[in-house]
Amino acid sequence: MLPVPRRSVVPPAHHRAILAVDVERSTALTNPGRARMRHSVHDLLVRALAAGGVGAEHHEGLVDTGDGVLALLRPVEAASKARLLGRVVPTLSRLLDDHRVMVPDEGFRLRVVVHAGEVHRDRYGWFGEALDVAFRLLNAPATKERLRTSAGALVLVVSDEIHRSVVRHGYDGIDATAFEPLRDPLGPAGWTHLPVLVRDREGDRLR
């Protein structure tokens, strides 16, 4: 049998915005605790997306990562990167704060990453360098340290690409001055932010 040409097994590339969340210190949880946490994280993210106007038709489904969730957003206005940063993340932060008050036994905190790039899908799932970059930012020691030393329940990290193309322009009321460079010389360039909510007639906004 002749070898299959390598190019024939490479699926087409798709541009997607990448939103992923990860629970701080999830390994300290018992298995029942993890079950409750997983349910809560999925529920909070679905509600945050819906509140930001992002429906199931705008993403590729929520992918469970064990102690977090990955969402790949299609390139449509309803799921724009500005909307993720300016609407969805602030709402997620508020919902998480509310959840921690109502269910103090589930006092988990989240790291959240927003990136974008070309990804591929095969029979095993989604893959691509853009996903690698996103998860390196999400799991960077500097990102974890920013959350560890904060009083908040959520830290946001964005790639340098997202900062250049969205954050620094102040789209959707985003305050670019509130973002700090990610100090990780061995990892990809990024920026971190501790969300502060400002409410107006249109809902929660990121400051």
Describe this structure in words.
It contains 5 helices and 10 strands; from the N terminus they run E-H-E-E-H-E-E-H-H-E-H-E-E-E-E. The protein is α+β, with helices and mostly antiparallel strands and 207 residues long. Strands 1, 2, 3, 4, 5, 6, 7 and 8 form an 8-stranded mixed β-sheet that branches. Strands 9-10 form a two-stranded antiparallel ribbon. The longest helix is centred in the middle third of the chain and has 22 residues, at 81-102.
CATH topology, by name, is Alpha-Beta Plaits
CATH level-four homologous superfamily name: Nucleotide cyclase, GGDEF domain
CATH architecture: 2-Layer Sandwich
Largest sheet: 8 strands, mixed
Using DSSP, what is the number of strands? Answer: 10
Q: Count up the helices.
A: 5
The CATH C-level class name: Alpha Beta
> By helix and strand content, what is the structural category?
alpha+beta
SSE series? EHEEHEEHHEHEEEE
Mean of residue pLDDT values: 90
The termini sit apart by 60 Å
Rg from alpha-carbon coordinates? 17 Å
**What percent of residues are in strands?**
25-35%
Notable features of this structure?
10 strands; Class 3 adenylate cyclase; single chain; eight-stranded mixed beta sheet; Nucleotide_cyclase; Alpha-Beta Plaits; 207 residues; two-stranded antiparallel sheet; 28% strand; 32% helix
Topology record:
Elements lengths: L13 E10 L7 H21 L7 E6 L3 E6 L7 H22 L7 E13 L2 E3 L1 H10 L2 H8 L5 E6 H6 L14 E2 L8 E4 L3 E4 L2 E4 L1
Parallel strand pairs: 4-6
Antiparallel strand pairs: 1-3, 1-4, 2-3, 4-5, 6-8, 7-8, 9-10
Helix pairs in contact: 1-2
